[in-house]
Amino acid sequence: GPSGGANRTVQVQGISPMVDEALLAEIFGAFGTLTSCEIKHEQTGVTGYCCFADYQSASAALAALNGREVLGSELKVTFLVVSSGPKEDTSTHPTVFVGNIGDQIDEYSLYEAFSQYNCSDSRIIRGDDGRCLGYGFVTIRTQEDAKAAVTAMEGQRLMGRPLRVSFAKTPRLSEADGLQSQATGMPSSKSRGPDVINTNADEVARQASETNVTVHVGNLLGTESEDTLRQAFAEFGEIDNLRVPGKNFGFVQYKHHMSAAKAIAARNGQTPLGFSRALRCMWAAEKSGGGGGGRSMPP
Q: Does CATH number 3.30.70.330 belong to domain 201-283?
């Protein structure tokens, strides 16, 4: 069976009925030495298992053949996930944020990159189209190893790109929001003290430059539509643009700075109609880094 050799084995779905084990072995064997190749007829359909002698070959085969059409059927190639006993509880493990990762990095290559630091899990954050959004997280079993990983891996190249590595703001892998401030290099919540929710729109308005008209809305589930978002934010002023580029965050861009300030003041920490979790609303990072407007608004 396809046991052992974790992550040297790829699982192949979408195999044409005309493909037999010999042909499958020929196709996948072009990328390296195969130690086994079998096709199994399971309830879910036909699945092929190709086990390579090393991870590099398996990885190359996956990159080249996933989505490739063979005899009129498109192959879906993934790493075989070998579950060994009960899954380790990683919820208490320190989480490290990894930014500037390329499209071709998957969970396993991210895990491999951090494996010498006692890494327990890895997660790549993807958009609705399945493409990597450029960042991910790894959990590491001890605080010491996590510190060592952050120090050693910052700036290291993974597939040609220097990684940005820091402690994640959120303690668990499952919460991927709070990234906006992470990505803009703002201090993490540890150094800022607890997040105090400010409901005074005038004070909120002074926290960002007057050219900033965009609210970053975090802690979404990923199932909310743009319409739901629009309904929750329409009452504060005219909305120019609205988008939900990631699973758990979106942006609402108003015509006026004050409208955005009112929205943040009213909606941060609230769970409006159509949402199932309390929203995290804050000023979106400004690309140009314009100066902060300190002028207070008329009441």
A: yes
Residues 50-85: tens digit of each pLDDT: 999 888 899 899 989 999 999 999 999 988 876 555
Predicted confidence (pLDDT) per residue in 148-203, tens digit: 999 999 999 988 889 999 988 754 444 344 443 344 344 333 333 345 678 889 99
Region of residue 77 (left: phi > 0; alpha: psi -120 to 50; beta: else): beta
The rounded distance, in Å, linking the Cα atoms of 1 and 38 is 8
Query: What confidence tier does 288 reach under pLDDT thresholds 50, 70, 90?
Result: low
Between CA 73 and CA 15, with CA 61 as vertex, the angle to 5 degrees is 20
What's the distance, CA 29 to chain centroid? 32
Helix (H, G, I), strand (E, B) or coil at 53: coil
**Which CATH superfamily hosts domain 95-176?**
RRM (RNA recognition motif) domain (3.30.70.330)
Strand, helix or coil for residue 94? coil
Amino acid present at 246: G
